[in-house]
Design a protein that fits this description.
The chain is mainly α. It has 5 helices and no strands. The protein has a single domain, classed as Four Helix Bundle (Hemerythrin (Met), subunit A) (Up-down Bundle).
Length: 126
């Protein structure tokens, strides 16, 4: 059975909103940011792949490939998906690699979850 990438968004939402989420809190919020990105990215990648629009590379460059694919579309919905994926990737990189997050981690996690939800909704309308 194939993994449903949207389940990562469900996990991210619970890490953000559940007062009983695992501690330490900042680690849980950073994980939420990362999982929200992967829910959106993998869903977008799989849609583009299923429509024959891209060939996944299974390398780090695949992230940019997917983002550029959607950003370069003539369809404004797809361009918005590309822009949102770019923002989510930036947030994920910050959460996964930076010692210090700019701003409040809870705010960044909520923004990441909302943005990823927008991407999944938009993908569903294509």
């Amino acid at each position: 059975m194939s993994f449903h990438w949207g389940d990562y968004l469900t996990l991210a939402e619970s890490l953000v909103s559940d007062p009983a989420a695992p501690e330490p809190r900042e680690a849980a919020l950073r994980a939420a940011i990362s999982r929200a990105y992967y829910a959106a990215f993998c869903s977008a990648r799989n849609l583009a792949k299923s429509q024959g629009e891209i060939v996944p590379t299974r390398t780090a460059s695949e992230h940019e490939l997917v983002i550029v694919h959607f950003r370069g579309s003539s369809d404004p919905r797809r361009r918005r998906i590309g822009a949102d994926l770019g923002r989510l990737r930036k947030y994920r990189n910050n959460a996964d690699y930076d010692d210090q997050l700019a701003g409040d981690p809870l705010d960044k996690a909520k923004l990441s979850v909302a943005t990823a939800r927008n991407v999944l909704t938009a993908l569903g309308s294509l």
